[in-house]
Design a protein that fits this description.
429 residues; alpha/beta; Rossmann fold; Serine Threonine Protein Phosphatase 5, Tetratricopeptide repeat; two-stranded parallel sheet; 57% helix; 19 helices
Length: 429
């Protein structure tokens, strides 16, 4: 492609992104302009378009920072001196971290380090972005560089996290030991205690050379994952998958001797799921009535992000309440991690989605799923799957959050550390 053709193609990509913004399609515009900006990091038009996008999204402070960066990139003096750009690059990169655009933030912060390679704040923020992207090996060296001058709690904590996630147990132990004197606030002490528990789980499993998503979810949060395989993109869950997931959940509870006296649902969308599982257990289904129900209660949620609303009611891990989420997002941090998770997925679409919105009766769908789940209970292959799941978690019961409220009085936060880059092939150290 000639330079003229490339220039025309670039202009077309920006015009198309601008059209998406004009049409109010903010998510589509974000994807388009982000892809373009990562490819052409010095194009001021891309930066300005992203600024307009942030302004329309209500992020006016970040929009202002990006506008200043765009103007600086456009000036002739900036073209001759990266040093002149450093302040605007850093302010924009820091602002992009706040809106979880870590790939773009890392791109800008890496340019800052070309001028100030030893600046601890820049190294820390770049390390944080890379850690948030699941690039833990890379993040480690920037946290280590920041720590040479700034040995504060956050820097040491994030370094300990990266050591744990790359299975460098001795380094992680040393870092956590040093954090004991730095942890002053209650939240810091809780986080330190949580990280120590993570390290204990990790030590118990260090002989295993390859960690699965199920392993990592247990190690990091003490949670159960019923379907360890990763789901790609928007996930449409048909009756057979739902039946399998709920039959696995029932088998897990029976195998671990977990009693459930009533099944709750928080949202209308989760009501069919709760009623199906209640039928499988031969107990009652009811709507959420607050945190103090006397029965041994399982709260069913279709989508774990629903926790964001009433999360303080579910942070307490008491004996009476269990929390199940059918779908858990891979990259969205959440204030509470469920006791049991059906599967990882980016989005979730249930067969009753449209019916719930229209107020249509979903009984026929539910009855079909119940029948399929009951049929699975006599399937030899499925029985073996249940037994394998129960054995896996029964051997690790000591550090499981499920049914362990005396040891874990609060459920841990889900900070989306289970990334593909550390979940498949990690050699033992």
């Amino acid at each position: 492609m000639s330079q003229e053709e490339a220039s025309s193609s670039n202009l077309h990509a920006l015009v198309a992104a601008q059209k998406l913004l004009d049409d109010g399609k903010l998510e589509e515009c974000l994807a388009a302009v982000k892809t373009y900006w990562l490819k052409y990091p010095e194009d001021p038009q891309a930066v300005m378009l992203f600024a307009r996008l942030m302004n329309d999204a209500g992020r006016t402070d970040l929009a202002g920072k990006l506008e200043r960066l765009s103007n600086a990139l456009s000036s002739e003096s900036a073209a001759n001196s990266l040093n002149d750009l450093t302040s605007d690059l850093f302010e924009s990169g820091h602002g992009l971290i706040d809106v979880r655009q870590h790939e773009l933030a890392a791109m800008l912060l890496e340019r800052c380090l070309n001028v100030h390679p030893n600046e601890p704040v820049i190294n820390y923020e770049l390390g944080f972005s890379l850690m948030s992207l699941g690039r833990f090996h890379q993040a480690t060296k920037y946290f280590e560089k920041a720590r040479e001058k700034e040995g504060d709690f956050d820097t040491n904590l994030n370094l300990a996290v990266c050591y744990s996630l790359t299975r460098r147990i001795d380094e992680a132990k040393g870092m956590l030991k040093g954090l004991e004197d730095l942890a002053q606030e209650d939240d810091e002490k809780k986080e330190l205690a949580h990280r120590k528990t993570v390290l204990k789980r990790l030590e118990r499993m260090q002989s295993k050379s390859v960690f699965t998503y199920r392993d990592w979810l247990y190690i990091l949060y003490g949670s159960v994952l019923l379907r360890p395989q990763i789901e790609k993109g928007k996930t449409i869950e048909g009756p057979q998958k739902i039946a399998m997931t709920l039959a696995l959940l029932k088998g897990l509870f029976l195998g671990l001797r977990v009693d459930v006296e009533i099944v709750e649902y928080y949202s209308t969308y989760s009501r069919p799921l709760a009623k199906i599982f209640a039928d499988l257990l031969s107990v009652t289904a009811d709507s959420y009535k607050g945190p103090n129900r006397p029965e041994r209660t399982l709260l069913m949620m279709s989508w774990a992000a629903d926790i964001i609303g009433p999360h303080r009611s579910f942070m307490e891990n008491n004996y009476q309440r269990l929390l199940f989420a059918y779908g858990l997002p891979m990259q969205e941090p959440l204030p509470v991690t469920p006791d049991v998770v059906g599967a990882f997925m980016e989005e979730l679409y249930m067969p009753w989605s449209e019916n719930v919105q229209k107020g249509t009766n979903t009984d026929s769908i539910s009855e079909s799923i119940v029948e399929k789940a009951l049929a699975l209970e006599t399937d030899p292959d499925f029985i073996n799957q249940i037994e394998e799941t129960v054995t896996y978690y029964d051997e690790r019961r000591e550090f499981l959050v499920l049914g362990n409220s005396s040891l874990f009085p609060e459920r841990p936060e889900y900070s989306a550390e289970v990334h593909e880059s550390v979940s498949l092939e990690i050699p033992s150290v």
